[in-house]
Design a protein that fits this description.
By secondary structure, the chain is mainly beta. It has 2 helices and 12 strands, in the order βββββββαβαββββ. The protein has helices spanning about 110-120, 150-165; strands at about 20-25, 25, 40-45, 45-50, 60, 65-75, 80-90, 135, 165-170, 210-215, 225-230, 240-245. The strands form 4 sheets. The protein has a 6-stranded mixed β-sheet with strand order 3-6-7-8-10-9. Strands 1-2 form a two-stranded antiparallel ribbon. Mean pLDDT is about 85; it is low at about 1-25.
């Protein structure tokens, strides 16, 4: 199952056809930051083991295939650069010793690990000084209250931590993507979630659940908008639809 690659200069997406490769025993494409425009340059951060200090070209990571980050530099104004982050919160099953009867694995623990990795790009008390768009598959339902597929209390700690890091939730939410025909799992009836994923044996049209989201640093988020490309005709070949992120820059006159 592949989520969208991270945006470079305003667009979140990736080639419809990406060769799948195996990591950690499953056929999933790990997070990627890819260049889709010749108007920008990207400088990927190499991944190393977590340490108190790493090189300027590196990022310490706690999990394989959970995060990718790159410095994105517009050619017309290099002061408009940002750190683009693609994230994936893998579901983790409880340890066998727990003899758990949970039907689904939890993703909040992976989300916290990813946020720990992302937090190295937070270097100021004033979050406006940060320029970080982050997006992809968190494997959680935003606003969940039910427990058939969710652990609402545990997952809420991850949602709250994202805001504590100075990141604002961008969605996508209703009106910025096709709404589901039937009720999504575990969320209130008035949810604004939009479907971004379907499961094996399904397809884009009956999809109901949202697992993919975008965030941006507080202050920068006011210049960023996101839309789920979840109409049936634009969905693409992945089980996850793509997200399109548009960001105003100084070159745009903002």
């Amino acid at each position: 199952m592949r989520g969208p690659s991270l945006p470079v200069r305003g667009k979140l997406g990736g080639p419809d056809r990406v060769r799948r490769r195996s990591f950690l025993g499953s056929k999933k494409v790990p997070p990627l930051v890819v260049r889709l425009s010749d108007r920008i340059a990207i400088e990927p951060y190499r991944q190393v083991a977590p340490a108190s200090e790493v090189g300027i070209d590196a990022i310490g990571v706690r999990g394989i295939g959970t995060i990718a980050a790159a410095n994105v530099i517009p050619h017309e104004n290099d002061e408009d650069h940002c750190v683009a982050v693609s994230i994936y919160a893998r579901r983790l099953k409880p340890h066998p010793s727990t003899r758990s009867n949970w039907r689904v694995a939890r993703s909040d623990a992976s989300a916290h690990r990813v946020l720990s990795d992302l937090s190295v790009f937070i270097g100021h008390r004033n979050s406006v000084k940060h320029k970080i768009p982050a997006a992809r598959d968190l494997n959680m339902f935003y606003g969940a209250t039910g427990s058939s597929l969710s652990l609402p209390k545990q997952e809420r700690t991850a949602w709250d931590r994202i805001q504590t890091l100075g990141m604002e939730f961008l969605g996508p939410q209703a009106l910025h993507g096709r709404s589901a025909e039937s009720a999504p799992a575990d969320v209130p009836s008035d949810t604004k979630n939009v479907p971004t994923v379907y499961y094996p044996g399904g397809g884009p049209e009956p999809a109901v659940n949202q697992l993919d989201y975008a965030y941006a640093s507080r202050g920068v988020h006011e210049k960023v908008s996101v839309r789920a490309m979840n109409a049936v005709e634009e969905w693409g070949s992945s089980e996850h639809c793509r997200l399109k992120i548009d960001a105003k820059t100084k070159a745009d006159g903002s």
